[in-house]
Amino acid sequence: MTDETPQGIPEPEGPVELIETDYEIGQDNVEGSVGPFGFDVHNPVFLISGLSIVLFVFYALVFREQATEAFGALRPWLTSTFNWFFLGAANIFVLFCLVLIVTPWGSVRLGGQDATPDYSYAGWFAMLFAAGMGIGLMFFGVLEPVYHMAISEPLGVPSPIAEDGTIIEANVEAAKRMGLAATIYHWGLHPWAIYAVVALALALFSFNKGLPLTIRSAFYPIFGERVWGWTGHVIDTLAVFATLFGLATSLGFGAQQANAGLEHVFGVPNNVEVQVVLITLITVVALVSVLRGLDGGVKVLSEINMVMAAVLLLFVLLVGPTLVILSDFGAGLVTYVGDLVAFSNPINRVDTDYMNGWTAFYWAWWISWSPFVGMFIARVSRGRTVREFLICVLIIPSLVCVLWMAVFGGAAIEQVLADPVNSPVKAQVIDSYNPPLSLFAMLEGLPLSGLTSTLGIILVIVFFVTSSDSGSLVIDTITAGGKVDAPVPQRVFWCTFEGAVAIVLLLGGGLTALQAMVISTGLPFTIILLLMCVAIGKGLASEPR
């Protein structure tokens, strides 16, 4: 075991290039207690972000109709105005990570040249996946491949489904390949590159440079001592907003999908009131996980969830049309590689519905999640080299996400093409566009649908819990000035308000409100990530390797 600072961050092992600064972690913090509950918060980051979130919740609840109208107009304006910016930035992140893998900087070890990993590969991957994309994979795993396959004209491929519901055989193969390729683009290299940039910056400047584990630390090579003043306050506050609304979007998706599954299997009413109750109950479970800590809460739940997810994945693969799914997986992957440049092009696009309605939203969502996922990945990645870190965080998870989409989406596509008139998947995804029910509609076409649907509901709920717990840990670290051992009641506060924000967004416009807020917070944080790439380059250049 290594020695730790008073803030719980391990000291570097072996040669590193520490940054000399007079700043001490927690020097601007306000400490005290309210009754039996202690607090240790950064001033003014906690005050500004906490008060802003409370006011937002108040506004959305009191002025519900006005908020609904505002949310409805915000998303289409943002995606149509700034789509070029989101796509261009995401391309930069991918290229930056790939370049680092092949340069000598890849041999720098996070935590010092003699550092050893804190977690095994199995534990590391489990936490990475559960925190990174769990709810999204469950929500979009069936929906997106089927939608892009059936509504393929915007992507330049004729639809295989005629207006009367019959199948046009000549269009089937090209539409299947495009449906999977268009989905792979949203779940492959680009999102994981976004996560990797933030995680690498945090790990490098905390474990190797001796700075606090907070977003502002990554900008020391650019702003110097100003990161401890208002420049840093703005950066950390934006990170809190982005993380909270990114999480709230995922929690809202999770609640809607869990409610749809409960209605499908057990007849529970599917409405916003039930979803509010679900978010409340699951937030309570997340609070229990918060009290158990990282190893006793998130790690244990993540590993359990990964086992259940693997079981469901193998079941769908083996019970469904296995050879067709694997063949389509390969064909979709080849199409993705071939069309990657076209998908990534931010200008002069004809498929604006796909670019604005899907890609721009996804990139904003991943960017909003990046402080949360990035800091969480950084916390559990000490001891890895930069090259090992980037390969594992960027390439391997991308392949697993792609396999998930290919299996669940591929099975659903075959159900639609086999019987387009009576297919439950077509009814939910294409005819009525009911995203939360798409997974359960696909499972209905396989054996043991009651059992597998119940397992799906449990997976969504546990992904919900691990995301909420991990997110509260990250937000608390930022608002405690980089301290990782701040009083537990602060994490309870943030865990509670994550659920509250998800509730008010559902009440104030449902999916539209969730997506509008994640885009609005992801936009300014994209600029932060672009500057972060510059800071990483400066930081790695000074490290021994």
Automatic annotation (TrEMBL):
The chain crosses the membrane at residues 45-63, 84-102, 122-143, 184-207, 274-294, 306-326, 360-378, 390-413, 446-465, 492-511, 517-537. InterPro entries: BCCT_transptr. Keywords: Cell membrane, Membrane, Transmembrane, Transmembrane helix, Transport. Its main location: membrane. It is found in: Cell membrane. It comes from the Bacteria. It is a multi-pass membrane protein. Pfam families: BCCT. PANTHER family: HIGH-AFFINITY CHOLINE TRANSPORT PROTEIN, HIGH-AFFINITY CHOLINE TRANSPORT PROTEIN-RELATED. Belongs to the BCCT transporter (TC 2.A.15) family. This is BCCT family transporter. It comes from Tropicimonas aquimaris.
